Every structure is written in structure tokens, then in C-alpha cells.
């Protein structure tokens, strides 16, 4: 039990709903809206609660984002007239291959049509979620920010009948502190898990119900992002730039994005595929280096960095999509891995999956069902545009992994072309991903440590000043939410074998290895207060010894418009 208080000893009040949704991201909010829309159209009642661990809706949402409006249009065909904050439309779409000092523009016209950004919109996904939450509340959805769903509630048969949320005031030792609140049980006919990438309840459910059996391994990337405000001279509203290549080497997958929108905002970020091998690599420092490239820097000249954050990205795609339902509930959005990696887009699929799940649940509830398996949702997914687009691009990531950036990404492009023209056919069939990201980590002795340049304080920065801009806060009197299965592993296994890469892959400086005055006796320190909830440690720790659990609701980053 994640909050550390014995389940048997805790008495909780309960609240009953037709549907309880964990996570106020695009998936969860879209599901809530569609449930209410269906009820309205049928003249029926359906009670829906959405729980969000961030202090407000949007506080934990971090995305690019260039958004394909196909998802929001399913909810609100007249989304523009209703004032949805998707603007500007993309006006210019550039793709660039970077060398250390050089750059080569790659024309986008030879790419398959779905890779183009014409007809897409730039936005802060956090602000889109804030807008969706307003629409949901107007329809009668109860949205509860500051409520972390920390545990599942099961019935006697083992089916999910809800979640525990709102546990506060647990002391450092796991016993109730002076302000202890046991939280409530939110019970439902169906529980939707829309926690986004590497959801902590989703992980438990996948293991408990074997949702990944017969599917390929899960794959991830880490996305690190900053928001800049830049002067008129360099601001190009509607401009979208994607890069591959430098500073990453051929064998390390990833690339950068830059979107100009809003009040002179430039959203700039980098995704590094977490199957990178070199344990000395620091995704944060690679991103800082990227911004010093002349062809990147020129867009930030004279500007000011105003926000920072990080979040894992789901990259497994079609072959890694788990079974989508379990007794009493479903997985929606990135908790099910619906991100389209080559397009770097997942929010439209998150919304579409929420809609599909809502439709299945509403029909079941109307038929007097509840607590059973909503297999109709998976059937609907199998007939949907989500499956079709993931199927078309299914080999892009495995080809990149096998053949590196230049050849692999090129082959992936050709494969996507063929698949889009031939109804999904690929000469490769469906390629496997191979190892998990944790297993892909190489040994420290086989790689040269990377010496990163010192931050210049103008374009590149250190971790601590960056975390400051994420407005992250955790009540220090609670237990550390980053649990080590075995506390000896970081120093006794990870340090000698891998150089303890948590120090480097964590984008918030949470993990440190400290030595005494003589440079002896290393010890592992976890500064959990800094955690920006990206979930990378849960994914990349080579020993799979770190388990990310929910801290109390309202803690974590407070992203304004990421
Ligand atoms: C760097 C980066 C760039 C991206 N760029 C784009 C882009 O340009 N276009 C695009 O379409 N997509 C992009 N994506 C992907 C897109 O952001 C995701 O596909 C989308 O956000 C998934 O939506 P979701 O609702 O499934 O999850 P999320 O958006 O992650 O939302 C999940 C919500 O659930 C909450 N939550 C999690 N666990 C709990 C819990 N236990 N209790 C209560 N609340 C909980 C979280 O706080 C969060 O608010 C990008 C992602 C990243 C990281
Ligand atoms: S501790 Fe883990 S989840 Fe938190 S910021 Fe670091 S890597 Fe991300």
C-alpha cells in the first residue's frame, strides 16, 4: 500500500459513482465529457468523478505540443467557436538534421502525409486540459484536483471497485501524523485509469491482471522541456521545428522540438529514447547542449527562460499496447501507450481513447452492468483510427533502435510510406522491440564518461535552477514516495556496475551519491522534494529497484502552461 499505513487498520468513508476516472489529462477529461454528453442525449443520469494529483488541473501536464484536432473535434465539433485554446495553426514545418556546428534542412514533402503538421495547432496541453475541465464541470462532472489516487479498492472476487484517494498527513515513518486524514474510497461501477505514462496504479493493474501477457515490452523516452519568452525579432508564431542528430550520437535515439505560439512563447524540448546504452549519458545535459547550437540558439536570442519540466513519453506503440480492460475498469490514453512516436503526438489518441471507453461504459451501465470486463472498449479500439495509425508506424521505433538515426529513421520513413499505401503491410512484418529500457543500459566500464560543458547561464543551465522554474514542492514530513525495493542496491550494485545512472537520468537532481571527506564511504541520497513526477527512475533504473508511488495530493510540480 503506497501510503504506508496498514490497510486493515484504516477506516474510510466511501463515495459512490457510476464512473471514477484517475487523472485529469486529455484522456480522463475526454472520457468524463463524453459520458455526460451521452447521458444528456439519452435523458439519463450518470455520475462521474475525476481525480487529479496536481494542485490544479494542468499542474502536472507537460507536452509539446502540436495537436492534431481530430481528438477534440470528436468531443466538440465546434471547438474553435467554443474557445478551445488551440492556436495558432501551424504555418511552417521544418525538419533539420544537426551536426555539431552545421545543419541540414530535410524537405518534409517526401514524408507520408500524416507526418505533416498542416492542419495541426500549437498549444499548451496544460491549458487545453484546464479548458476541458471547465467543459466537464459545466456538464456536471465532479473534478477533484489535489487528490492523488494512491491505492486500488478490490471486491472479494479481486475485481477493481474503486480507488483510495486523498490520504494526507502520513508521517515519515509511515504512521499517521498529527494532521492525518485517511482519505476516501471512491467506488464505481467502472474505474478508468488515465494516469498518463507509467501510471503507478496502471503498473499494479498490468502486473495483477497480466495485461501485458502476449504483448511486446513497454518502451519509453524522456522528454525535457523549457518555455521561453522571446523578443519580436526571433518570434515566428506558427513555426514548428524538429531536429535529429547532434548532440545525440547515431546510436542514441531522440530529437528536439521547438514550437512558437502564444505571447512570444517558444516551447523547446528534447526527447531521448530511454533505451540508450551509455550509462554516463545525461538527457538533461544533452538538452542544455542542444540549445547552444547556432541554429537553435538563434531562436532564443534575447529571450528569457520562464518554465522547466520533464515527463516520460510512451514509445512502445502498437506492439506494446496492453490488454485494455480488467474486471471493473479500463486503461485510457498514455496509460495504455497510445502515443504515435514518429508523429510525436499522443494527445489526440488520448482523447479518442477516452471517448471510446466512455461509450463502452455508458452502454454497459445503461444495460444494468458494472464491475465486469468492458471488452467492448478493446473491440472498439481494434476498429478505431487509433489502432490504424499505430499499426502504420509500428516499425519506425524498432528500426531506429536497430540501425541508428540516419539509416534507421530513413528506413522507418520508407516503411511508414509503404504501410500507409498498402493497408498496413510491411516487408518487416511487425518488428519486436527487444530489451526493456532498463535492460538496455550498458556497463559503466564499457563506456567513456561524458564531460558536459558548464552551463553558460544564458542558453544552458544547471538542474537546480531548472527545478526552481518547475515550482515543485513536496511536504517533507511525509514518507519518501520513491521506494527502493532493496536500499543496498544503489551503492552495492548500481554504482560499481553502472556508475549509478540515477544521478544522470533524473532531470531534477533527486538522486545523489555522496562521499565522506576522504572521498570514501559512498551513500545514496534521495532529495524527493525535487521530483517532477516524470517517472524516468521507475523505467530506467537498470536494477528495477526504484518504485515511483504517489506522494500526497497537490505535491509535485506546478506547471503554468506546459
Ligand atoms: C515532451 C513531450 C512532448 C510531447 N509532444 C506532444 C505533441 O506535440 N503533441 C501531442 O499530441 N502529444 C505530445 N506528447 C504526448 C502527450 O502529451 C500525451 O500523449 C498525452 O498527454 C497523454 O494524455 P493522458 O491523458 O493519457 O496522460 P497525461 O497527459 O499524462 O495526464 C495524466 C494526468 O493524470 C494525473 N495522475 C497520474 N497519476 C495519478 C494518480 N495516481 N492520481 C491522480 N492523478 C494522477 C497526472 O497528474 C496528469 O495530470 C508529448 C509528450 C511529452 C512528454
Ligand atoms: S525522481 Fe524519478 S520521477 Fe522524480 S524527477 Fe527524478 S527521475 Fe523523474
Describe the model:
The protein has about 550 residues and is an alpha+beta fold. About 25% of the residues lie in helices and about 25% in strands. The strands form six sheets. Strands 1, 2, 7, 8, 9, 12, 18 and 19 form an eight-stranded mixed β-sheet that branches. A seven-stranded mixed β-sheet has the order 5-4-14-15-16-13-17. A two-stranded antiparallel ribbon has the order 3-6. A hairpin with a 3-residue loop joins strand 15 and strand 16. The structure holds flavin-adenine dinucleotide and iron/sulfur cluster. Flavin-adenine dinucleotide binds next to helix 1, strand 2, strand 3, helix 4 and strand 13.
Residue runs with pLDDT of under 50 for 5 or more positions: 1-8
Ligands bound here?
flavin-adenine dinucleotide, iron/sulfur cluster
The DSSP helix count reads 14
What number is the mean pLDDT? 96
What structural category arises from helix and sheet content?
alpha+beta
Range of helix content: 25-40%
Distance between the termini: 31 Å
- Specify the biggest β-sheet: 8 strands, mixed
Which characteristics define this entry?
eight-stranded mixed β-sheet, binds flavin-adenine dinucleotide, 26% helix, 23 strands, alpha+beta, binds iron/sulfur cluster
Layout of SSEs?
Blueprint: E1 13-22, H1 26-42, E2 48-52, E3 66-67, H2 70-75, E4 92-98, E5 103-106, E6 121-122, H3 125-138, E7 142-145, E8 149-154, E9 160-165, E10 168-170, E11 176-181, E12 184-193, H4 200-208, E13 220-229, E14 239-245, E15 254-261, E16 265-273, H5 283-290, H6 294-297, E17 304-314, E18 325-326, E19 329-331, H7 347-366, H8 375-382, H9 385-392, H10 396-421, H11 463-468, E20 482-484, H12 489-498, H13 502-505, E21 511-514, E22 523-526, H14 536-540, E23 546-548
Parallel strand pairs: 1-2, 1-12, 2-7, 4-14, 12-19
Antiparallel strand pairs: 3-6, 4-5, 8-9, 9-12, 10-11, 13-16, 13-17, 14-15, 15-16, 18-19, 20-23, 21-22
Helix pairs in contact: 1-3, 1-7, 7-8
The structure holds flavin-adenine dinucleotide (FAD) and iron/sulfur cluster.
The site of iron/sulfur cluster (SF4) has 13 residues, from helix 14.
Amino acid at each position: 500500500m503506497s501510503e504506508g499505513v496498514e490497510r486493515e487498520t484504516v477506516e474510510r468513508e466511501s463515495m459512490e459513482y457510476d464512473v471514477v476516472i484517475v487523472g485529469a489529462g486529455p484522456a480522463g477529461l475526454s472520457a468524463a465529457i463524453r459520458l455526460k454528453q451521452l447521458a444528456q442525449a439519452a435523458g439519463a443520469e450518470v455520475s462521474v468523478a475525476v481525480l487529479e494529483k496536481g494542485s490544479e488541473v494542468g499542474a502536472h501536464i507537460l507536452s509539446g505540443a502540436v495537436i492534431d484536432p481530430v481528438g477534440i473535434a470528436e468531443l466538440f465539433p465546434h471547438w474553435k467557436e467554443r474557445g478551445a485554446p488551440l492556436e495558432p495553426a501551424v504555418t511552417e514545418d521544418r525538419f533539420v538534421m544537426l551536426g555539431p556546428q552545421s545543419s541540414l534542412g530535410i524537405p518534409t514533402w517526401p514524408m507520408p502525409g500524416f507526418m505533416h503538421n498542416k492542419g495541426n495547432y500549437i498549444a499548451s496541453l496544460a491549458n487545453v486540459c484546464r479548458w476541458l475541465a471547465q467543459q466537464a464541470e459545466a456538464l456536471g462532472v465532479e473534478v477533484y484536483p489535489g487528490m492523488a489516487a494512491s491505492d486500488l479498492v478490490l471486491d472479494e472476487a479481486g475485481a477493481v471497485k474503486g480507488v483510495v484517494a486523498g490520504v494526507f498527513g502520513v508521517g515519515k515513518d509511515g504512521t499517521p501524523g498529527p494532521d492525518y486524514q485517511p482519505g476516501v474510497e471512491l467506488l464505481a461501477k467502472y474505474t478508468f485509469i488515465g494516469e498518463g505514462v507509467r501510471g503507478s496504479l496502471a503498473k499494479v493493474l498490468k502486473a495483477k491482471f497480466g495485461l501485458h501477457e502476449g504483448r511486446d515490452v513497454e518502451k519509453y523516452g524522456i522528454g525535457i522541456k523549457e518555455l521561453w519568452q522571446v523578443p519580436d525579432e526571433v518570434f515566428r508564431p506558427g513555426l514548428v521545428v524538429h531536429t535529429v542528430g547532434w548532440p545525440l550520437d547515431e546510436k542514441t535515439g531522440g530529437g528536439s522540438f521547438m514550437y512558437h505560439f502564444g505571447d512570444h512563447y517558444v516551447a523547446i524540448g528534447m526527447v531521448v529514447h530511454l533505451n540508450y546504452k551509455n550509462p554516463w549519458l545525461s538527457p538533461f545535459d544533452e538538452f542544455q547542449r542542444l540549445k547552444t547550437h547556432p541554429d537553435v540558439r538563434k531562436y532564443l536570442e534575447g529571450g528569457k527562460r520562464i518554465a522547466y519540466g520533464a515527463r516520460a513519453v510512451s514509445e512502445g506503440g502498437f506492439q506494446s499496447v496492453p490488454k485494455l480492460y480488467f474486471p471493473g475498469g479500463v486503461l485510457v490514453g498514455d496509460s495504455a501507450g497510445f502515443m504515435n512516436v514518429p508523429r510525436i503526438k499522443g494527445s489526440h489518441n488520448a482523447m479518442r481513447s477516452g471517448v471510446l471507453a466512455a461509450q463502452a461504459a455508458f452502454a454497459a451501465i445503461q444495460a444494468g452492468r458494472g464491475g465486469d470486463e468492458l471488452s467492448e472498449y478493446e473491440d472498439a479500439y481494434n476498429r478505431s483510427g487509433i489502432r490504424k495509425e499505430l499499426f502504420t508506424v509500428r516499425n519506425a521505433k524498432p528500426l531506429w533502435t536497430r540501425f541508428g538515426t540516419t539509416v534507421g529513421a530513413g528506413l522507418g520513413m520508407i516503411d511508414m510510406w509503404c504501410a500507409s499505401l498498402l493497408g498496413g503491410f510491411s516487408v518487416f512484418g511487425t518488428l519486436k522491440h527487444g530489451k526493456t529500457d532498463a535492460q538496455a543500459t550498458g556497463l559503466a566500464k564499457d563506456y567513456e564518461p561524458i564531460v558536459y560543458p558548464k552551463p553558460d547561464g544564458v542558453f544552458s543551465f544547471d538542474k537546480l535552477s531548472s527545478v526552481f522554474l518547475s515550482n515543485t514542492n513536496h511536504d517533507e514530513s511525509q514518507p519518501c514516495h520513491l521506494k527502493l525495493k532493496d536500499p543496498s542496491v544503489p551503492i552495492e550494485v548500481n554504482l560499481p556496475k553502472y556508475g549509478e545512472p540515477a544521478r544522470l537520468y533524473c532531470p531534477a537532481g533527486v538522486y545523489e551519491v555522496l562521499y565522506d571527506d576522504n572521498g570514501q564511504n559512498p551513500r545514496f541520497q534521495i532529495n524527493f522534494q525535487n521530483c517532477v513526477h516524470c517517472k524516468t527512475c521507475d523505467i530506467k533504473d537498470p536494477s528495477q529497484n526504484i518504485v515511483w508511488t504517489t506522494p500526497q495530493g497537490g505535491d509535485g510540480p506546478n506547471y503554468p502552461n506546459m
